[in-house]
Design a protein that fits this description.
Chain lengths: ~230, ~220
């Protein structure tokens, strides 16, 4: 049989097509487990980032001297390229998922701290004054007035951090822990077009879905923003 | 700490400063990739941002482009372009770098132009300035801080993506990191990462300073 006829009968995997149903059906398990790792790495990194950013942001908001330090430090961290960040962490946490998570936490932290500070700064002074006037103590003022009012800005940060983290996880492939990035990396070495394109499309779709989910969560957390004007 | 002294030893070793794989050559490659991509991206995105911003058209496009750019993994686009029609090499790398440099410039340039006080633009039109003169002498000078902010973000993005490009098409400081991973030599990995981080911070500082120098309003304010 001539080679072109052979290729036609052999299907999209042998032809190395960009779009290939056989790839998805034959590697479904690997794709799903990579997607699972991608989601886990993203969720863990953003959650830890948020848990650290809230107290750090409060601290920076409360003390202006610390603010310049915290915001300056976060700019420096954010400037360091992802591949270099993972590499710099290598002596401490080795070739592991921990290294990827620590790097991603540092990135999401820098985005989130900024938005926590900006959100708190945007709370109108007269609102704070009336709350203090009606007898709110420092803690209830923070928990029941300031944080709820800062929530939309903080949430905007969570959305940006989540979407960037979904994209950045792929670079973790250099440490063998990049979720769908692992598929892109192996596809690069074997020039396997369907593998690279499929993984890329899933990563972008994951970012979009995560963003939409966060919009829904934000709506349910800030019902007053939906009130008719 | 032995890891630290290993890295210092790496930098002290003169063989790491010579030849194709040496620090000076890798630095030059990184600089060349960054400058080429940023130059092309500015040539495309700055006029487009000024034009759309002046007309006040295409806002959703100009603003959402950055959000889309954030959701697309740079690593994936580098790989897609390299195993695709462009092939492994500088063409695929520079194309990917340009694609990721355009959104921040376009978005920030557009917002900068739109945030110029409409009264000032009206006044300029009232004294008889034409559209090009308004852009050149009124809107652009006032949009400089945000436009330069966009170019700075793009430059940092390009430096970061050029590092990852070593995985795909070779060239740049990322190669030192990859060589370290390939030979399981931690000192080389960390030394490469230190060089990359220092390069990125230098670019960030350069564009912060440049933005400050080029902002005519800020300069007047400092003089006052």
């Amino acid at each position: 049989m001539p080679p072109d006829l052979l290729a036609q009968s052999a299907g999209c995997l042998q032809r190395n097509d960009w779009i290939c149903g056989d790839y998805v059906s034959s590697r479904a398990e690997l794709i799903l487990s990579s997607l699972g790792q991608h989601v886990t790495l993203t969720v863990v990194s953003v959650l830890i980032g948020l848990l650290l950013a809230l107290p750090l942001g409060l601290f920076a908001f409360r003390f202006p001297t610390a603010r310049a330090f915290v915001l300056g430090g976060s700019t420096v961290l954010y400037t360091i390229p992802s591949l270099a960040m993972f590499s710099l962490l290598l002596p401490f946490t080795g070739l592991s998922a921990t290294t990827v998570v620590v790097g991603l936490v540092l990135y999401s932290l820098t985005i989130l701290v900024r938005n926590v500070v900006a959100g708190l700064q945007a709370v109108p002074a007269d609102v704070v004054e009336s709350a203090v006037g009606t007898g709110y103590g420092p803690l209830s003022l923070l928990m029941r007035v300031m944080l709820p009012l800062a929530l939309p800005t903080i949430f905007a940060g969570v959305r940006v951090a989540t979407v960037s983290t979904v994209a950045l996880v792929t670079v973790g492939a250099i440490l063998g822990n990049g979720g769908l990035g692992n598929l892109i990396y192996s596809g690069l070495r074997t020039q396997f077009q369907a593998e690279v394109l499929t993984a890329t499309v899933i990563v972008v779709a994951l970012a979009v879905v995560a963003d939409l989910l966060l919009v829904l969560v934000q709506r349910s957390l800030t019902p007053w923003q939906r009130a008719p004007r | 700490m032995s890891a630290l002294s290993d890295v210092l030893d790496w930098f002290a070793d003169s063989s790491h400063w010579e030849g194709t794989g040496g620090v000076p050559n890798r630095l030059l490659e990184h600089l060349g990739l960054t400058a080429a991509a940023l130059g092309i991206a500015c040539a495309v995105a700055v006029p487009l941002a000024l034009w759309l911003g002046h007309l006040g058209r295409g806002g959703p496009f100009a603003i959402n482009l950055s959000n889309i750019g954030r959701a697309v993994p740079t690593f994936a686009i580098l790989v897609l372009l390299a195993i695709g029609p462009l092939g492994f090499g500088p063409r695929a790398t520079v194309t990917a770098l340009v694609l990721f440099a355009i959104p921040p410039i376009l978005t920030n340039g557009y917002v900068g132009m739109r945030e110029v006080d409409r009264d000032i633009v009206e006044a300029a039109r009232g004294v008889g300035l034409g559209p090009l003169q308004i852009v050149r002498t009124v809107e652009l000078p006032l949009a400089v801080p945000l436009l330069m902010n966009g170019i700075r973000l793009a430059a940092v993005q390009v430096v970061a993506t050029a590092t990852i490009a070593a995985l795909v098409a070779g060239g740049g400081l990322g190669n030192i990191i990859l060589l370290g991973f390939g030979t399981q030599d931690q000192a080389t990995v960390v030394a490469g990462a230190v060089l990359v981080a220092a390069f990125a911070l230098a670019v960030e500082l350069l564009f912060l300073g440049l933005g400050r120098r080029l902002d005519p309003v800020g300069r007047l304010r400092r003089r006052a």
